[in-house]
Amino acid sequence: MELKDIEKFANDNFNELVKLRRHFHMNPELSFKEVHTPAYIADYLRDLGLDVQEGVGGRGVVGKLIIDEKLPTVALRADFDALPIHDQKDVPYRSVVPGVMHACGHDAHTSVIMTAARILSENKDSLNGNVVFIFQHAEEVDPGGAIQMIADGCLDGVDAIFGQHVSTSLDIGTIGYKKGTATGMPDDFTVKIKGRGGHASKPDGAIDPLAAAISFCSQMQYAVTRKASPMEPVVLSITMFNGGHQHNVIPDEVEVGGTIRTFNKETQDIMIKELKKCLEGLVTITGISYDLDYMKGYPPVVNDDKKTDIVIQASDEVSTVDAIQSLEPDLGGEDFSYYLQRVPGTFYYTGVRNASFRADYPHHHGMFDIDEKGLINALSVMLRSVFIFFEEEASK
Predict the structure, then answer these.
(1) Which residues are catalytic?
(2) Which residues are paired to 199 by β-bridges?
(3) What is the mean pLDDT of residues 286-296?
(4) For the packed helices 374-394 and 3-12, what is the interaxial angle rounded to 10 degrees?
(5) What are the tens digits of pLDDT across the range 115-148?
(6) At what angle do helices 14-26 and 106-122 cross, to 10 degrees?
(7) CA–CA gap between residue 56 and residue 323 (Å, rounded)
């Protein structure tokens, strides 16, 4: 299939992309609770004549387009879970599920790979290899769906993998890439700080968990600025602080939670050590006790240079791509990393920012939206990458 055909097919399928994306946007499902979404995807792929497996790793779906098992095989991955965020947009495709929305673009990712499956299955005579379409559940919540799907065999026989993420940090027409380490390790923690409640007028008769929790939050910022190397990026964000319900009552317990994000194990270990030292110090000073739940997140996404070069070449050849940008590593987490530990591949970003359409809110925001024309670039670059991969494999 020539590039002009790819661009024509991508443009001709724009309405299909939008229809699919808006269907998923209106009907979001939370991580590990996806039921209707994988069923819809499986039915769609089955209608294309693909070999379809459901319940892969729990709730994942895999579609296979096998031309010849002796030929190379490339996998394309999309995630399809949503977030516990209320959709604040006033648009016809607003989420119909209160408190749940696609605030990260997974609906777009799924629509792109489903449409790619349609185009490739309808033009399978042009393929010099096999394509596996991986639709993954639960990217947003540890332990994530990727590692479960891999354990269930979704990468069996796969030689390379490509994935993409829409981004409102990049203008429409831009493709972003990163060679090597692209994302960080997103650890989460929750600590219950336990004291002894009492009357607010007599704090000396209580063990105040609120005061201890406030001190904990402050001291952990010291760990970031004075314990971790200034040459190694680290982010600590306290995102939960729950305790107390009455003005004149010191509560028994306060819950504090947040995330620590790093790029390497050494910095990760320092932050975990300092967090525990901080809590133990509060035990000595204030008399509190605590329960700590620390959850290490996904490993970093480490992109293969050669597969990234394929995306760069594909982007350069697609006429609707205006800019190709090398990105700095991002401390966001992404369980695409698990696929890359097994097979070479790359994870890139498609610009969908357009302030004219109010498509410039950050990910995980209740007003998050995309300029859907960016889906054409996402699809075109993905399809062209497939054909470049097959061309390179054939030349070996």
Answers:
(1) 81, 139
(2) 249
(3) 97
(4) 150
(5) 999 999 999 999 999 999 999 999 999 899 999 9
(6) 140
(7) 37
What stretches of 229-321 adopt beta strand conformation (E)? 234-242, 249-250, 253-262, 289-295, 302-303
Contacts of 87 (CB under 8 A, 6+ apart): 94, 95, 100, 101, 103, 366
Alpha-carbon gap, residue 105 to 102, rounded angstroms? 6
User: Do residues 47 and 122 touch, judged by C-beta distance below 8 A?
Assistant: no
Residues of the chain with CATH 3.30.70.360: 188-295
Residues in the chain: 396
**Sign of the dihedral through C-alpha 298, 300, 301, 304:** negative
Q: What is the rounded distance in angstroms from the CA atom of residue 78 to the CA atom of residue 343?
A: 16
**What is the mean predicted confidence (pLDDT) over 365-375?**
98
Handedness of CA 151, 154, 158, 161 (dihedral sign): negative
Indicate the pLDDT class of residue 3, thresholds 50, 70 and 90. Answer: confident
What residues does 241 pair with on adjacent strands?
A: 256
Whether residue 75 contacts residue 343, with contact meaning beta carbons closer than 8 Å, is answered with: yes
Q: Average pLDDT, stretch 19-38?
A: 98
Predicted local confidence at residue 100, as pLDDT:
98
Q: Are 67 and 136 in contact (CB under 8 A)?
A: no
Q: Which part of the chain is CATH 3.40.630.10?
A: 3-183+300-394
Share of the chain above pLDDT 90, in %: 98
Tell me: domain 188-295, CATH 3.90.25.10, correct? Answer: no
Alpha-carbon torsion angle 126, 372, 36, 99, nearest 10: 160
Residues 365-391 have a mean pLDDT of 98
User: Which runs of consecutive H residues, i.e. helices, occur in 287-361?
Assistant: 305-317, 336-340
Token couple for 286: 């204030």
pLDDT exceeds cutoff 90 at 8: yes
Domain 3-183+300-394: assigned CATH number: 3.40.630.10
